[in-house]
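note to self: dont lose this again. the chain is below, predicted strucutre after it. 445 aa total, dont forget to put it in the shared folder this time
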Amino acid sequence: MAPLPEQGLCISQVESGSIAEELDIAPGDIVVTVNDQPVQDILDYRFAMADDLVQVTIRKPDGQIWELEIEKDPGDDLGLSFTGEGLQPIKKCRNNCIFCFVAQMPPGMRPTLYVRDDDYRHSFLYGNFITLTNLSVAEKQRIVRQRLSPLYVSVHTTDPELRAQIMRQPAAARIMDDLVYLTAGGITIHTQVVLCPDINDGPHLERTVSDLLSLWPRIASLAVVPVGLTACRQNLPDVQRYTPAQATQVLEVVHRWRDRALQTHGYPFIFASDEFYLLAGQPIPETAYYADFPQIENGVGLTRLFYDAWEEAAPELPATLPKPFRVTLVTGRLGEKVLFPVVYHLNQIANLQVDICAVENRFFGSSVTVAGLLTGGDIINALHKRTLGDLVLVPAAALKPDEDVFLDNLTLTELQSRLPVRIRKAGTPGEIVAVIKELKGESDE
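---
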């Protein structure tokens, strides 16, 4: 028997009552091969587990080798979890983009926030955007062979020279070759362009949309988002923010191509992020504009979904509160525009006063205006200058979901201890309405 390869997946947990538990497979064991094929990561494992009869090679911590033949229903798992989610090591970014947000972040934050993830497996599993510049030929072949679809790709421009210049990576020039290969192999791809004024907009954007639309429907959508700039851009190329007039020009291009795509393909294809509408002072489009909301995680249509959810939740609001309450709603500068109609509605409730506190982002710089990048320290600085009333609602998007920690490592509990008023988090319209209903309950007691 040939020596077994050293790679494999280390088992971290075995599900109770699972096939693996019945076979005495245990945490610390290594899954080395399945059906005589090396298992590099969780995707290899899942791909092999689609069979109803699998041969699994296990290496025990003491070096014993177990050869197991397992019969199961097609698609059934063995009940195993793996260290590092079975995706270590992460494929990191090899680019040096002129607008890289990680390169603009201040020091002293959580180490994971500085990881430049450019892993095609994360794109398939979690919808992360990747650039394709670090893929080997074998990895491209694997994507097609294992049907790792859809993927999410940051294109920025299809002009080879300009893309290499923007990303400061020669391999970036082959973007159209990579996209043609993957789409011809049956892979569906959602794309994005981070627009920088007078760099990759204007005629360059026109070319990019035309090139990508030529590969529809495998290139399934294109999101256009404005560049994000912080105050920590030391030793980085000069990149400007979009002005309202420039944002309006971008929307004109997007809408023109959207109309063309609807006429030729029956699908809008190209979408501008909410930020462009807010910057231009234009209304957020209606729900039908966003078709099937293909790029919601990219900030495309989030505001419309928020408004739709508000319309659904608002009828549950009480008409009056038995005694006066004052609530402060914390958000970013951009979020203030989104929340105006919500706050107007809330202030129609008798005995309720709701104020917006639009926090200036000093941590990243005043040009960063989204609520999701607010820090606990900036929220404290803004609230100390105000009369807070009875309750402060902070945006849930600014907190790490599983720990209630802000980007500056301040916790929600620490924020509460430093302010003389109750603090709650809320992210959805339903959560805001639930808080107001709780206030009514307190009044009734």
